[in-house]
C-alpha cells in the first residue's frame, strides 16, 4: 500500500531501505503504521524506536501506543487469537517485546522504549521500568522515571524518590 506525502510516494520499505528515506518521509511512514496489526508493521515500528531523528523515534512510540490500544481492545472484547499468530500481534506479546527493549544494548532504544511504555499507562510495566531507573545511562534513567510518573503506580514511589537524588542533572 503506497501513501502520498507531498509529491513523494511512500511505499512500505523494509530494513535498511527505510533508513535511506528523508526524515519527513520516515515520519510519514511511521505515522501510517499506527494501529496496523501486522508483524511487519510492528517490527518496523520497533526498529524506528532507535531512529536518529527524534521526531521519527517519537512518532514510532506514539504509533506503538496506538497499536497497543487497538490490540488491547481486541483482547478485551474477546476476539480470538488464531493459530500461528505471531506474539507481537497480541497485546501481551507486544508488551513483552517492549519490556525486552528495556534491556537492549542501545541506550537510545532503551530510553525510547521507556517513553513508549509511558504512553501505554500500563501498570504491569512498573517493575521493568523500576529496573530501568538503575540503568547506567542518564537518558534511560530519566525516561524510566518519567514513565513511572506517568503511570502513577504507588509501588514506584521509592524509585522516583531515588531518581530525585540522581547524580545526573538530566534525571
UniProtKB/TrEMBL annotation:
Annotated SMART domains: EZ_HEAT (SM00567)
UniProt xrefs under SUPFAM superfamilies: ARM repeat
Signal peptide coordinates: none
GO terms for MF: oxidoreductase activity
Organism listed in the record: marine sediment metagenome
One Pfam family this sequence matches: HEAT_2
Name listed for the protein in its UniProt record: HEAT repeat domain-containing protein
Amino acid at each position: 500500500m503506497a501513501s502520498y506525502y507531498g509529491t513523494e510516494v511512500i511505499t512500505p520499505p523494509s530494513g535498511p531501505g527505510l533508513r535511506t528515506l528523508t526524515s519527513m518521509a520516515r515520519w510519514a511512514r511511521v505515522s501510517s503504521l499506527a494501529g496496523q496489526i501486522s508483524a511487519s508493521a510492528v517490527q518496523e515500528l520497533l526498529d524506528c524506536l532507535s531512529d536518529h531523528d527524534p521526531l521519527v523515534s517519537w512518532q514510532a512510540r506514539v504509533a506503538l501506543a496506538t497499536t497497543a490500544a487497538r490490540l488491547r481492545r481486541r483482547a478485551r472484547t474477546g476476539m480470538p487469537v488464531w493459530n500461528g499468530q505471531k506474539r507481537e500481534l497480541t497485546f501481551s506479546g507486544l508488551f513483552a517485546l517492549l519490556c525486552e527493549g528495556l534491556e537492549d544494548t542501545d541506550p537510545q532504544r532503551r530510553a525510547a522504549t521507556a517513553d513508549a511504555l509511558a504512553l501505554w499507562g500500563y501498570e504491569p510495566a512498573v517493575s521493568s521500568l523500576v529496573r530501568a531507573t538503575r540503568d547506567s545511562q542518564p537518558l534511560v534513567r530519566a525516561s524510566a522515571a518519567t514513565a513511572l510518573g506517568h503511570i502513577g503506580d504507588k509501588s514506584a514511589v521509592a524509585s522516583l524518590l531515588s531518581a530525585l537524588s540522581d547524580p545526573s542533572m538530566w534525571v
